[in-house]
Here is the input.
Amino acid sequence: MSGSAKNQGNAAAPARRAFLKAMTGASVVTAAAIVGAEPAEAQTATRESRNERTKARYQANSADVQAFYRTNRY
Here is the structure.
């Protein structure tokens, strides 16, 4: 292969790279806008107090746990 044939085959490569860089930048900006658009109240409402974090959550005799074990018996 001659040197000029190599250059002709890669002529579109810089344009593709620039396009992919632009798409990456646009996706980062979009993701930042989505995260930033979430209201502050929603962000703080998801925080749990110390008592809520340490409370017992698993209840072996609850209906949903009993249904799980009943349907998954082998």
